[in-house]
Write a structure and sequence with these properties.
It is a single chain. By secondary structure, the protein is of the alpha+beta class. It is 61% helix and 12% strand. A 3-stranded antiparallel beta sheet has the order 1-2-3, with helices on one face. The protein is flat and about 55 Å long. It starts with a helix and ends with a helix.
């Protein structure tokens, strides 16, 4: 039930918040916001993993870190709020939780793909392609990856995640933020 309630709240919000968007733009925006990865990230921010009851097998195999379990748990929480609280409370709660992902997704396709953004930035500026260095820690069932991205020989960002891809994206996002801040500083008196 939580996934349906979530889709309804997000659909209603983006429909009213972005009246200039065509229907063909609204559907991908909603899909980006209600996807499992977004919900798993939100569950992580809310530290929902601490409250999940898992069987012994899932506990031992790192179930608290699995995006599918975290996103399902987040949907369950949304469903519980729907059943237990007034509609307005649910709307405010979901909108608050998802304000940043909705704002980011409204920027258009590829907003999350910071690796591509950095690659394109380097190409535009005549720089060498970004270089990523990875390291990993932990047992196979709960491995954590760390990444460092270098541009033109200079470290620009660090990030981590449950997969190599997540770690590289996090490092690229950190680098992108650094570049964005440098651009702001360059035009600020």
């Amino acid at each position: 039930m939580g996934d349906s309630v979530l889709a309804l709240v997000v659909t209603d919000h983006i429909y009213t918040a972005f009246p200039e968007m065509a229907e063909g733009q609204l559907a991908p925006l909603r899909a980006e916001v209600v996807r499992a990865e977004t919900l798993a990230d939100l569950a992580g921010e809310l530290q929902l993993a601490k409250a999940i009851r898992l069987g012994r097998g899932e506990e031992v195999s790192g179930g608290r870190e699995k995006p599918s379990i975290l996103s399902d748990a987040m949907e369950a929480v949304i469903g519980a709020v729907y059943l237990d609280a007034p509609w307005e409370v649910l709307i405010d709660l979901v909108r608050g939780w998802l304000a940043a992902p909705i704002a980011a997704a409204s920027q258009g396709p590829g907003f999350r793909d910071f690796k591509t953004r950095l690659q394109e930035y380097c190409a535009r500026c005549g720089y060498e392609a970004p270089e990523y260095r990875l390291s990993e820690k932990g047992p196979d069932h709960a491995k954590r990856f760390s990444a460092v991205v270098r541009m033109n020989g200079k470290e620009r960002g660090r990030g981590g995640g449950r997969s190599k891809k997540q770690a590289e994206q996090a490092a690229a996002a950190a680098a992108w933020q650094t570049l964005d801040l440098e651009a702001v500083a360059a035009v600020t008196p």
